[in-house]
Amino acid sequence: MYGKAFAPEYQGELGSALGVNSSYEEVLAKASQAHAEAGTSLERSRAALAVAEANRRLGRVAEAGDAWRESYRSARTAGEPGAMAWALWSGGTLARQCGTLPLARRLLTHAVALADGSGDRLAHGYSLAGLAETGRIQGDYAAVAELHEQLLEQGRKHGEARHMVWAMSGIAQMHRNTGGYDKALELFEESVRIAAEADDHRGRAWSLRGVADVLSVQGETERALTLLSEAEEICRTMDLASALAYNHKMRGNVFYRAGRYESARETYTLSLREFREMQEPRGIALSRLGLAKSRARLGRDQEETLAELATLEKDFTRIGLRHARDMVIAFREELTARPAAETPAPRSGATTPRYPAVPARS
Questions:
Q1: DSSP code at position 338
Q2: For the purposes of burial, counting CB atoms within 10 Å of the CB of 91, is it exposed (0-12), middle (13-18) or buried (19 or more)?
Q3: Arithmetic mean of pLDDT over the chain
Q4: pLDDT band at 251 (very low <50, low <70, confident <90, very high)
């Protein structure tokens, strides 16, 4: 069993004033006011943490970076290792969002250690979850699959729906990326259900995106687009800038798989602009890959495409995105296998690389 979703990153008085579905402009306004009125170092740390998270979700990278560092300094002044752990969790999550994955791992590893020593179970769980997600994004499935399962069981044990949705979606994503589409769809749909019942709008939006992705791979284009429109509405209501950009990138993927290359090009161009405004390298690179593939299908000079793919391969290698790098390699091989004019559109899921199997959820 599980209760309604809650947001432990909003602490102190902010914890009672804000909820998991508060818009991030509202969070930023209230947290900024709380920070201005803070009377102790711990209060300043808690308010700065909420400021950091609001700015991160709104795509304001520089402001988020300043805020989590201030939160950490204030927590250190207060001698509160739990609050220090939350600040490092925020910083590690921001680093992952910005594509600096080695830094994300370092910050989150320190957060785990501080949380463990402080006895703050939620900070410990969120920091472990951040490490697991970072490894998953890098494609290091063998290292993090078991951790995802453990975190899911912890979420069930303590009735934390938001954490259950996160872990289940991560497991589903690994199944999807290794070709286990039926299992991925089952888990994503369960995530949608749990998020809806727990009133976790953000978790529901991300889970809907996962369902749409799998349906698209299986050829159900219109259903996928409908679900993405539903998720987009949630993103706009909650000011989820990063999630909205990833929603648009996924819409580009859906159009591309359906052979609607002009629509794909337009949508990837939109997501690329959004990611650039947020200074989010991972999203930028993924959108550029989609755009390069769409332009290739629309008759772009093959040598220009190959040059861009070479640049993207270097970018993905630098960021540490193994799955995305393998997609670049697979598309280049497909593109050069025959003359460009004769290259057919890829089959759904054809460029998805295979990794070791992920253990099924018990």
A1: S
A2: buried
A3: 89
A4: very high
Q: Do 72 and 88 touch, CB atoms closer than 8 A?
A: yes
Q: What is the pTM of this model?
A: 0.83
Paired tokens of 73: 């300094």
* Strongest mean pLDDT among 1-10, 160-169, 262-271: 262-271
The answer to whether the CB of 165 falls within 8 A of the CB of 190 is no
Task: Report the domain count for the chain.
Answer: 1
Domain membership of residue 112 (yes or no) is yes
Is the residue at 73 inside a domain?
yes
Radius of gyration of the chain (CA): 20
* DSSP result, 234-265: HHHHTT-HHHHHHHHHHHHHHHHHTT-HHHHH
What is the sign of the dihedral through the CA atoms of 190, 192, 197 and 203? positive
Which residues are CB-neighbours of 88 under 8 A, at least 6 positions away? 68, 72, 107, 108, 110, 111, 114, 127
Expressed in angstroms, the distance from the first to the final Cα of the chain is 16
Nearest to 163 by CA among 17, 11, 4, 357: 4
For residues 152 and 110, the answer to whether their CB atoms sit within 8 Å is no
On whether residue 328 sits in a domain, the answer given is: no
Q: Is 232 helix (H, G, I), strand (E, B) or coil?
A: helix
Give the whole-angstrom CA distance, residue 183 versus residue 266.
Answer: 31
Would 235 be classed as within a structural domain?
no
Question: Which among 184, 189, 162, 161 is positioned nearest to 173, based on CA atoms?
Answer: 184
pLDDT in tens, 127-145: 988 998 999 888 888 888 8
* Beta strand ranges found along 150-246 (DSSP E): none
Residue type at position 21: N
Residue 18 structural domain:
1-138
Place of tokens 């207060």: 78
| CA atoms of 2 and 165, how far apart (whole Å) | 11
- Dist. CA 20–CA 307, nearest whole Å: 44
- Structural contact between residues 187 and 172, judged by C-beta atoms closer than 8 angstroms: yes
The CATH number given to whatever domain includes residue 61 is 1.25.40.10
